[in-house]
Amino acid sequence: MIIKDINMKTMKRKFMFLALLPLLASCSIYHPQAVDMPLINHAGDVRVDANLSMSAWLVPDATNLNLTGSVGITDALAGQLHVNYGGDNAYVQAAPGLYFPVGENFVVETYAGFGYGGIWRDDDGTSSRKQGEGANTKTHSYSGKYMLPFVQLNTGWHDLGAVHFGVAFGVKAGAYMPDFHYSEYDAEGALIPDRSEHYTTTNVLIEPQVQIGIGGEHVRWVTRLGYAWLNDVSTEAGGTTFMNDWITVGTGLQFTF
């Protein structure tokens, strides 16, 4: 009876692993961006945010260095530029915006912008093959780029108390427009023609984010959490090889000038 129970548990584990294989073989083509929500509140207000982020779906998938600069241009107009790089992926976005201080510590701000990114990845099969001949043969690769026109709404409180505590909530909505290629190769490194895919389906993107900061008047430690939903690839990979990282966690410093 004990042996039978052990065999049943082993079979269940094997079944769960096999069920996850299609997901583990999928290719992530977007992750939530760790963009600063600056809560600009006056003309000449300048914020620079530098942070390190990690993105994941089932497992950690991308680690990025992020830099955001924001400025209050007039008493109502703001501007923002964000860039990030992760070794095999990069992204940049620019956005003008409007901000509306409400009372002493609350701000509503909205941006309309454009983003452009790219991802390039190869799997040389080293981890799945025995060392020796063919150990470094490429098994699959995918690469591509995407454009992202978007609007974003941020709200939150800044500079609360002696520790200048701040909390912000935001949501980005946009049109994710990809152009990605996926290819698989046999043991000799030759392309398998019927195992290639070209993905160009435009997706609706919804990307909420929360941000918490604490520190001094000019330097704060900020942590943010972002989530991304794409209407085609977020649902069982849309019937394609491609999917998106659904969560990003970032932490770093925000400087106020």
Structure description:
It is a single chain. This protein has 257 residues and is mainly beta. The chain has one helix and 14 strands, in the order H-E-E-E-E-E-E-E-E-E-E-E-E-E-E. It has one domain (2-256): Lipocalin, CATH 2.40.128. The model is unreliable at 13-25 and 126-135 (pLDDT under 50). Helices cover 9% and strands 57% of the residues. The strands form two sheets. It has a ten-stranded antiparallel beta barrel with strand order 2-3-4-5-6-7-8-10-11-14. It is elongated and about 65 Å long. A hairpin with a 3-residue loop joins strand 10 (203-215) and strand 11 (219-227).
- What is the top-level CATH class? Mainly Beta
CATH topology call: Lipocalin
Quickly give the CATH architecture: Beta Barrel
Beta-strand segment tally:
14
Oligomer: single chain
Q: Structural class of the secondary structure composition?
A: mainly beta
Radius of gyration over C-alpha positions, nearest whole angstrom? 22 Å
The major beta sheet can be summarized as: 10 strands, antiparallel, barrel
Report the principal-axis shape: elongated
Main-sheet strand order equals 2-3-4-5-6-7-8-10-11-14
Helical content band:
under 10%
Residue ranges: pLDDT <50 for 5 or more in a row? 13-25, 126-135
Count of structural domains: 1
What number is the mean pLDDT?
A: 86
Distance between the termini: 71 Å
Order of SSEs: HEEEEEEEEEEEEEE
Count of DSSP H/I helices? 1
Beta-strand proportion: over 45%
